[in-house]
Specification:
The chain contains 3 helices and 11 strands. By secondary structure, it is α/β, with parallel strands linked by helices.
C-alpha cells in the first residue's frame, strides 16, 4: 500500500495510514512526508511503515511493536514512551529521542540532538535500546532509569562524541560511548568504567543487528574503544526528598 502525503494535514495522513491497516495492509509506504506529526503512534506488531521524507514530532509515540523505517531525518520526540517495536532512521534525529521509552529499539545512522534517552526505563525483560551512529548532544541519558544507549562515533570525530552533562540524574541502565569521555562531561551521579568481555558479547550482537538494519559495517569497533557509564546509585536524589 502506498500513500502520497503531499499537502496532507497530519490527522488526515494518520487516518489514511490506519484505514490501510484496517483493510488488511501490513506494509505501508508514505511518500513526500513533510513534518506530519504522530505518525506510527500506537501501532502494534506485524506492521511495517516506510516513510520517505522527514516526519514531524513524536514519531512512533506509544508504539507497541511495529517497525518504522525512515529514509531521511526525524524531528523531536521520536519514540516518545515507546513500548515495543523498532525505528530505523537513515539520517539524523532531533532532541528527546526515546523520551521515557519502555522497550524496543531505535537505530539512528547519524547524530542525535539534546536529551536522547531521557528517562528511559526497563522492567524485567523489557529493555529499551538506542543506538546512535555518530554523535549525541548535551544531556544524553538524562534521568535514565534502565536500558542501553550506545554511541558509536562512526567516523571518529575530533574530541568527544558526546556533549555535556551526560547521564545527569542517572539511576539505572548503561550508556556506552566509543571515543573520549572526560569526567567533566558527566553528571555527578555517573561512574566511568571499561567494558567487560561479557558486556562486549551482548554489544556485539546489538551491533550486528544495527549494521544489518542500516546496511553499515562497523567491524572496526573494538571493546577497548568503548567506555561504560553507569549510575553510582539507584537513588541519586534520595536525601532531597526523604530522611
Amino acid at each position: 500500500m502506498r500513500i502520497n502525503a503531499e499537502g496532507l494535514h497530519y490527522r488526515e495522513l494518520n487516518n489514511r495510514i490506519h484505514a490501510a491497516l484496517d483493510d488488511g495492509a501490513t506494509e505501508v509506504t508514505v511518500d513526500n512526508v513533510r513534518g506530519q506529526r504522530y505518525l506510527g503512534a500506537g501501532l502494534g506488531p506485524g506492521v511495517r511503515l516506510t516513510l520517505n521524507g522527514v516526519p514531524g514530532n513524536d514519531l512512533a509515540a506509544f508504539m507497541n511493536g511495529a517497525e518504522i523505517v525512515v529514509n531521511a531525518n526525524v524531528q523531536d520526540g521520536t519514540g516518545n514512551t515507546m513500548n515495543a517495536g523498532r525505528v530505523i532512521v537513515h539520517g539524523a534525529a532531533g532532541d528527546l529521542l526515546g523520551h521515557s521509552m519502555r522497550a524496543g529499539r531505535i537505530f539512528v545512522r547519524d547524530d542525535v540532538g539534546y536529551r536522547a534517552g531521557i528517562h528511559c526505563k526497563a522492567f524485567e525483560r523489557n529493555v529499551p535500546i538506542i543506538v546512535v551512529g555518530t554523535t549525541a548532544g548535551d544531556y544524553l541519558g538524562e534521568y535514565i532509569a534502565g536500558g542501553i544507549v550506545l554511541v558509536l562515533n562512526i567516523g571518529s570525530v575530533a574530541g568527544s562524541p558526546v556533549g555535556r552533562h551526560v547521564g545527569t540524574g542517572m539511576h539505572g541502565g548503561a550508556i556506552y560511548v566509543r571515543g573520549a569521555v572526560e569526567r567533566h562531561q558527566l553528571g555527578a551521579e555517573v561512574g566511568l568504567a571499561d567494558v567487560e568481555p561479557g558486556e562486549w558479547a551482548e554489544l556485539s550482537r546489538l551491533l550486528d543487528e544495527y549494521c544489518a538494519a542500516l546496511a553499515l559495517d562497523v567491524a572496526t569497533c573494538r571493546r577497548e574503544d568503548f567506555v561504560r557509564l553507569y549510575p553510582h546509585t539507584s537513588r541519586p536524589y534520595g536525601k532531597l526528598y526523604s530522611y
